[in-house]
Design a protein that fits this description.
mainly alpha; 11 helices; globular
């Protein structure tokens, strides 16, 4: 069950991460119109980007696998694993909702836009993809990323850690395909307007996923009565966090070019 929860969180984290400055920049810089301006083919660059993202995810997965091996060596029981899952998931939701004050983004690092003019498409496509897919080398937009790492380690199975990292990397990489039909500036602006409109709903949905993971773990851990009470508390927490999140403005998103 922890493997399943880890994959769910990985997918949610990857989707939310698309709204990072790096993620949005990729939607501007790796498109048919942008690649034509550099005399490159979008399909080839996008393929290298997705491949790089998968390798980046596998790199992250290797680190998660190391944590899983450590957890397995400790002999942690199912109850301890589920209890940590509940606490970690609720904590991640509170961080993303800025209930505790500080919140994402973390690690405010951008990719190097100079690569676009200096290197061939396979270099910047694969290189940018790896950094995006690795998850913790550029902007971290959600606490679901460290939660994913924690859950992957809690599986106690290195192969599961690798799979969770790969799922994250692949999902992040595939986001570049949303710009496959951008062939002029008007289409590019329309794409970013749609992404701007989805930013808040996606952020709230990820918080909901984190609390849902906590709820599932609580039902597996606690007696029915205790789990039911905790579920009600989590639902109330979600409503409260969602209200707070909705009232917090997001920073401006880059529409063209890379932003440092």
């Amino acid at each position: 069950m922890i493997v399943t929860l880890g994959v769910v969180v990985a997918l949610a984290a990857a989707v939310r991460s698309t709204w990072s400055p790096c993620g949005l920049s990729m939607l501007s810089q790796i498109t048919p119109v942008a690649e034509a301006g550099r005399r490159q083919k979008f399909g080839r660059t996008a393929a290298w980007f997705v491949a790089g993202s998968v390798v980046g995810g596998l790199t992250l997965g290797a680190l998660i696998a190391l944590g899983a091996a450590v957890v397995a060596a400790t002999g942690a029981g199912e109850s301890a694993v589920l209890a940590i899952t509940v606490v970690a998931s609720i904590s991640a939701a509170l961080v993303d909702g800025r209930v505790l004050g500080a919140g994402p983004p973390f690690l405010r690092r951008q990719v190097n836009e100079d690569w676009l003019s200096k290197y061939r498409s396979w270099v910047y496509g694969g290189g940018f993809g790896w950094q995006i897919g690795a998850g913790i080398t550029t902007y971290v937009m959600t606490a679901a990323v460290p939660l994913m790492i924690v859950l992957g380690a809690l599986t106690g199975m290195p192969w599961a850690g690798v799979a969770i990292g790969a799922a994250f990397g692949l999902t992040r990489g595939l986001a570049v395909l949303t710009g496959a039909r951008v062939r002029n500036p008007t289409a590019l602006y329309a794409l970013h307007r749609r992404f701007d409109a989805l930013a808040e709903p996606v952020r709230r949905a990820v918080i909901g996923v984190q609390l849902a993971v906590a709820t599932v773990a609580a039902w597996l851990l606690a007696p029915v009565v205790v789990a039911a009470v905790l579920t009600a508390a989590l639902v109330a927490t979600y409503v409260w966090v969602r209200t707070r999140v909705a009232s917090q403005p997001m920073g401006p998103a880059p529409v063209g070019g890379l932003v440092r």
